[in-house]
Amino acid sequence: MEQILLETERLILRPFALSDAVQVAHLAGDPKVSSPTMNIPYPYTLEMAKGWISSHAARWQDGSGLIYAVTEKETDRLLGTVSLVQICGKKAELGYWFGVPFWGRGYCSEAVTALTELSFTKLGIDHLQAEHLSSNPASGRVMVKNGMKPVASIMRENRDGILSNVETYERKCPQI
């Protein structure tokens, strides 16, 4: 089954293409994007972007993940990504990042809203989880705007093996 395309007022959410790799490496390679995340390495190379993009189709096909390129509808410019980074039965973990030039414009919240709606209405997901480093409160604001509730603060190792304070959130399907 092909990955479902999503459209919002300003955005198109589509599968990534290998042709997006240069822009992914540029956007995710900005330390302002990678440093407040648990998983994006720095430096982030073109080869890393190609490998990451190449993994998406298999994750969609086996039902373990769903990764979207978020593009601006008017220009087709890549802004960032929103994804279900881990799907396990009826539960999924939400993840996202956006390039610095696109922060503070509501794009991330708009994309998360679209993916949340798809998750609950068409994918059979009834429970979303997400987390962010405590040092990145803007990410938490996106979660709250999308109906997620804070659950706990925990300590977890980041990509460099350093213990970091992480805020966890969840949202259950409204029909539950």
UniProtKB/TrEMBL annotation:
GO cellular component entries: ribosome
Keywords: Acyltransferase, Ribonucleoprotein, Ribosomal protein, Transferase
Entry GO MF terms: acyltransferase activity, transferring groups other than amino-acyl groups
InterPro entries attached to this UniProt entry: Acyl_CoA_acyltransferase (IPR016181), GNAT_dom (IPR000182), N-acetyltransferase (IPR051531)
Top-level taxon in the UniProt lineage: Bacteria
A Pfam family of this chain: Acetyltransf_3
Ranges of residues in domain N-acetyltransferase: 10-149
Family according to the record: Belongs to the acetyltransferase family. RimJ subfamily.
PANTHER family in alphabetical order: [RIBOSOMAL PROTEIN US5]-ALANINE N-ACETYLTRANSFERASE (PTHR43792:SF8), GNAT FAMILY, PUTATIVE (AFU_ORTHOLOGUE AFUA_3G00765)-RELATED-RELATED (PTHR43792)
Name of the protein in question: Acetyltransferase, ribosomal protein N-acetylase
